[in-house]
């Protein structure tokens, strides 16, 4: 039985359907990337998986139990939501934000115990931002904020992380570091479902890629089988070549950029550096 | 400073301020009068000499000044705590307890009471009930439409507030312009001169209860201020929790209006000041705001009754003191709430 399954989910606001008959299954320890153009229904699908939006049709099952029937607290002990990078109105300390992850484990009127505090601190340490714990969340960088939200999800003690464009708004270095962090956590057995706008990131990191176009699944395969020239064209309407690098690795190269690329005459140097690396 | 140290220092400061307030008034008294009175009252059971003076001191301290001091502290802390709670709930530090129309509703209720009711208690009941009614209307309006919950609630509050303000004007228009209208206007300016022991006795328990609910749900306030979706993904039943919080904050602010009319700016300014001192974590922010608010209203009420020969309505002073203070605070407050 898959860990999380989406069966025939359809949803719409008003006339136009946002999602149509979407089915997919997520297995334990997988990293699943949802790819799709703007407005393809990725975020809506995530929110339906999280039980935040009840779908018009179909249902989402977690270990065979319908998510809509689960109490919010019970659900929050299994599924953690890492939202898109956001600005917060109030300058909570980083540690207090991470501590919020303990809420689903507590009864209505409670206080955080020492053990909760230690869990939150451990989560921050694990992600390498332990030194930030007393800083205001509003003062740290975008990458650090995203890591704080992941720390909150770790503190929450769930086995599934649902992330909405986790690298959105991060600089290139922080994007790579964040993806590496996700990879490390997946090695430990955590399951990730994330949306992304970068096919490259899906290739680097995903066990599986689900492509959504106008609310329908057009591909659901392993990353290597899903991210192809043909699928990318269908998804984005742009000609993109999926290129295997000498020495390993796969990257996406938009054809339109091949000819405008200012580094045409540096060809030999790139080849040389590959040779050196090889 | 550690939270516990801060809270106890603020508490001590408040205690000293209350003692000093007890000595201030038209009839000059000193701290030693209080000690003398307390000693006689609690240890000698009134059997000692000087019975007449003792009775007079008892009259001044217990019947006149103490109810007013207690009322000022209760109202100041209630407005501050409900203001802070509303600000967290609506993720907006510029929100005040009147957001959902409770003040407009209570004003209308009091005006109706002044015209039709015979007793002061009935006026208070009417103010309280209409305050609740206005918020109920706001919440009801918000639930009629789909859309972002917080925005709909705010719009519902705007509509409900405008409605009850118009109704208040209708009442003012039909009121007897020589007796009733001045009473309404004067009441709307806010003040503690009508407070007595009985009012305190009746109101303090629900006030403390409401504040207690808000205090105990501070962690939920923190999570709600991350937005509805995140709060729900953290296992919070947002609808139910928010309804409980709105009910508690509304009850508390409606009661303050029933006791003392409209006392503006406390619920907006004091949470700001408290947040600048201890940060936005509601677990420590709410008690801090309660203590600072109590201290603030105690001080301003002291000014209201002593500064000029005739007593100045408290609501006027809280606005006049609060507004420039708020301007100053805003300059510094950019940090921490973008």
Structure explained in plain terms:
The complex is a heterodimer of chains A (278) and B (338). By secondary structure, chain A is α/β, with parallel strands linked by helices. Chain A has helices spanning 42-49, 72-76, 94-99, 114-126, 142-156, 172-187, 199-205, 223-226, 229-236, 255-260, 267-277; strands at residues 4-12, 17-26, 31-35, 57-62, 65-66, 79-82, 160-163, 191-196, 208-213, 216-222, 240-244, 250-254. In chain A, the strands form 3 sheets. Chain A has a 6-stranded mixed β-sheet, sandwiched between helices. Chain A has a 4-stranded antiparallel β-sheet with strand order 2-1-4-5, with helices on one face. In chain A, a hairpin with a 2-residue loop joins β9 (208-213) and β10 (216-222). In chain A, α4 crosses α5 (142-156). The longest helix of chain B is centred in the N-terminal third of the chain and has 39 residues, at 51-89. Chain B has helices spanning 3-23, 31-43, 51-89, 102-116, 120-144, 149-174, 180-188, 197-216, 218-224, 228-233, 238-260, 266-278, 282-306, 314-332. Chain B has one domain (71-332): ABC transporter involved in vitamin B12 uptake, BtuC, CATH 1.10.3470. Chain B is mainly alpha-helical. Helix content of chain B is 77%, strand content 0%. Chain B has 14 helices and no strands. The chains are: A alpha/beta (278), B mainly alpha (338).
């Amino acid at each position: 039985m898959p860990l999380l399954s989406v069966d025939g989910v359809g949803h719409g606001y008003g006339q136009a359907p946002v999602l149509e008959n979407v089915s997919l299954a997520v297995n334990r320890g997988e990293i699943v990337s949802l790819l799709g153009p703007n407005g393809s229904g990725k975020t809506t699908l995530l929110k339906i998986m999280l039980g935040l939006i009840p779908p018009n049709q179909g249902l989402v099952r977690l270990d065979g139990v319908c998510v809509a029937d689960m109490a919010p607290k019970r659900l929050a002990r299994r599924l953690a939501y890492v939202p898109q990078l956001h600005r917060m109105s109030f300058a909570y300390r980083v540690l207090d934000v991470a501590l919020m992850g303990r809420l689903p484990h507590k009864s209505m009127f409670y206080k955080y115990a020492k053990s909760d505090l230690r869990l939150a601190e451990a989560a921050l340490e694990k992600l390498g931002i332990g030194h930030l714990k007393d800083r205001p969340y509003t003062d740290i960088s975008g990458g650090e904020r995203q890591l704080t939200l992941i720390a909150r999800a770790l503190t929450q003690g769930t086995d599934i992380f649902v992330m909405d464009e986790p690298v959105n708004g991060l600089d290139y270095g922080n994007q790579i570091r964040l993806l590496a962090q996700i990879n490390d956590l997946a090695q430990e057995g955590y399951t990730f479902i994330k949306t992304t706008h970068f096919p490259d990131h899906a290739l680097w990191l995903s066990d599986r890629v689900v492509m959504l176009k106008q609310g329908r699944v057009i591909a659901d395969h392993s990353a290597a089988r899903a991210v192809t020239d043909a699928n990318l064209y269908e998804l984005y309407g742009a000609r993109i070549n999926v290129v295997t690098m000498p020495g390993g690795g796969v990257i996406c190269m938009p054809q339109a950029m091949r000819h405008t690329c200012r580094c045409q005459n540096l060809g030999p140097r790139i080849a040389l550096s590959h040779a050196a690396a090889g | 400073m550690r939270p516990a140290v801060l809270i106890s220092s603020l508490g001590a400061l408040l205690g000293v301020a209350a003692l000093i307030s007890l000595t201030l008034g038209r009839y000059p008294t000193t701290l030693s009068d209080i000690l003398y009175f307390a000693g006689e009252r609690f240890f000698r059971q009134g059997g000692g000499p000087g019975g007449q003076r003792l009775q007079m001191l008892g009259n001044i301290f217990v019947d006149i000044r103490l109810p007013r001091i207690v009322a000022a502290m209760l109202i100041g802390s209630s407005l501050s705590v409900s203001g802070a709670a509303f600000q967290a709930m609506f993720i907006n530090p510029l929100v005040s307890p009147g957001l959902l129309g409770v003040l407009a509703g209570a004003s209308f209720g009091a005006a109706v009471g002044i015209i039709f009711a015979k007793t002061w208690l009935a006026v208070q009941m009417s103010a309280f009930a209409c305050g609740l009614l206005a918020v109920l209307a706001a919440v009801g309006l918000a639930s009629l439409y789909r859309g972002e919950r917080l925005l709909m609630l705010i719009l519902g509050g705007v509509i409900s507030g405008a409605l009850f303000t118009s109704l208040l004007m209708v009442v003012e228009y039909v009121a007897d312009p020589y007796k009733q209208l001045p009473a309404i206007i004067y009441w709307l300016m806010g003040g503690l001169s009508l407070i007595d022991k009985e009012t305190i006795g009746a109101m303090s328990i629900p006030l403390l209860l409401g504040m207690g609910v808000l205090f105990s749900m501070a962690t939920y306030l923190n999570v709600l201020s991350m937005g509805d979706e995140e709060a729900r993904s953290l296992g919070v039943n947002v609808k139910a929790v928010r309804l409980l919080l709105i009910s508690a904050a509304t009850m508390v602010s409606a009661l303050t209006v029933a006791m003392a009319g409209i006392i503006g700016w406390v619920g907006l300014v004091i949470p700001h000041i408290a947040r600048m001192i201890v940060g936005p974590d509601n677990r420590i922010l709410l008690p801090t705001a309660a203590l600072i608010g109590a201290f603030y209203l105690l001080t301003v009420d002291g000014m209201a009754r002593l500064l000029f020969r005739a007593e100045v309505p408290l609501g006027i002073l809280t606005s006049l003191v609060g507004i420039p203070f708020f301007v100053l605070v805003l300059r510094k407050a950019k940090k921490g709430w973008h």
